Amino acid sequence: MILPYIMFNGVCREALDYYQKIFGCPVKMVQTYGDYVPEGLEDIPPGLDRWILHAEMDLYGTTAWFADEAADPIHNGDNIRLTVTVPAREDAQKIYDRFNTSGALRIVLPPTETFYSTFHAEIFDKYGIGWNIVAEEAPCCSSSMMI
Predict the structure, then answer these.
(1) Is residue 17 included in any domain, yes or no?
(2) 41, 71 contact by CB (below 8 A)
(3) Which is the most buried residue in 16, 41, 88, 97, by most CB within 10 A?
(4) Upper half-sphere CA count for residue 60 (Cβ side, 13 Å)
(5) Sign of CA dihedral 59, 63, 68, 73
(6) Phi, psi at residue 135, to the nearest 5°?
(7) How far is CA 16 from the centre of its chain?
(8) How far apart are CA 77 and CA 17, in angstroms?
């Protein structure tokens, strides 16, 4: 099993609220650095006690972990994309619309029908995380691909 662990620089709580609104999934647990400070942590940022040490959220059957990284600064990058799959086009459209109205940073692929799905879109959210949104629903007239 592979679990995505999404790291932030002091804005994890804000990001959790954001993802709850986008996906409609509750946060399962939250632990702050105020509850536990890892041994050997140096150069403690101001307000660290309110930062998230660890949080969990179920996103459509996958548990995702979230945290504020106190040891090393996090840099937004594009070396990972997370893909959320939902049953139907309508479900995918709702998620896409929520990202769009809450500050998508960049749209890489606007919603499109493909040979494998009635809906595929890719965006970067306001935290620099890349998201593919894919409906599991196949197009009605798809043809099998030859390899």
Answers:
(1) yes
(2) yes
(3) 16
(4) 17
(5) negative
(6) -85, 135
(7) 9
(8) 21
Do 63 and 113 fall into the same domain? no
- Per-residue pLDDT of 78-115, as tens digits, reads 556 788 999 999 999 999 999 999 887 888 889 999 88
What range does the domain containing 92 cover? Answer: 81-135
Residue type (1 letter), 8: F
**Do 103 and 126 sit in the same domain of this protein?**
yes
- List C-alpha distances in Å: 116 to 58, 78, 120, 138: 25, 24, 9, 5
pLDDT tens across 125-136, in order? 998 888 999 999
Radius of gyration of the chain (CA): 17
Q: Which amino acid is at 59?
A: L
> Cβ neighbours of residue 42 under 8 Å, at least 6 residues apart?
none
Token readout for 9 is 């620089």
Half-sphere exposure of 130 (CA within 13 A, CB side): 9
> In whole angstroms, what is the distance from residue 126 CA to residue 100 CA?
10
CA distances for 117 relative to 88, 94, 100, angstroms: 9, 16, 20
